[in-house]
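> example.struct
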C-alpha cells in the first residue's frame, strides 16, 4: 500500500481532482503570500520614511530649542543689567534729591535778594 492510498483525498480514481484543488489552493496561498509580502515591503518603506521625517523634526526641534535657550539667556542678561541700573539709580536718587533741595533753597535765597534789591532800586528812582 502506498502513502497516498490511505488518505481519502488522494485515492485512486478521484485523486486528480483533489490534486488540482490542492494545487489551486497552494497557488492562492502563494498569491496571498506575495500580496502580503508586498504590503510588508510597502509598510517598511513607509516606516523608513516616517523615521527619516522624525529625525528631521528632531534635528529641527533641537536647533529651535538651542535658539530659544540662547534667547532666554540673552533676556536674562538684559534683565540683570536693567536691575543693576535700577539699583544704581535708586542709590543715586537720595543724593540727587538732597542736591535739588539745596539748589531750590539757594535759588529761593537769590530770588529774595533780587526782589529786595529791585524794591530798593525802585524806591530810589524818579516819582
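> example.seq
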Amino acid at each position: 500500500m502506498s502513502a497516498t492510498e490511505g488518505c481519502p483525498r488522494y485515492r485512486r480514481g478521484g485523486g486528480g481532482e483533489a490534486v488540482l484543488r490542492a494545487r489551486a489552493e497552494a497557488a492562492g496561498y502563494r498569491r496571498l503570500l506575495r500580496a502580503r509580502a508586498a504590503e510588508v515591503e510597502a509598510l517598511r518603506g513607509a516606516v523608513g520614511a516616517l523615521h527619516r521625517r522624525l529625525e528631521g523634526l528632531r534635528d529641527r526641534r533641537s536647533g529651535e530649542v538651542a535658539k530659544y535657550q540662547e534667547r532666554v539667556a540673552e533676556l536674562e542678561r538684559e534683565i540683570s543689567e536693567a536691575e543693576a541700573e535700577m539699583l544704581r539709580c535708586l542709590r543715586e536718587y537720595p543724593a540727587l534729591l538732597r542736591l535739588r533741595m539745596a539748589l531750590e533753597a539757594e535759588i529761593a535765597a537769590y530770588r529774595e535778594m533780587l526782589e529786595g534789591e529791585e524794591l530798593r532800586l525802585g524806591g530810589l528812582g524818579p516819582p
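> remarks
The helical segments are 15-124.
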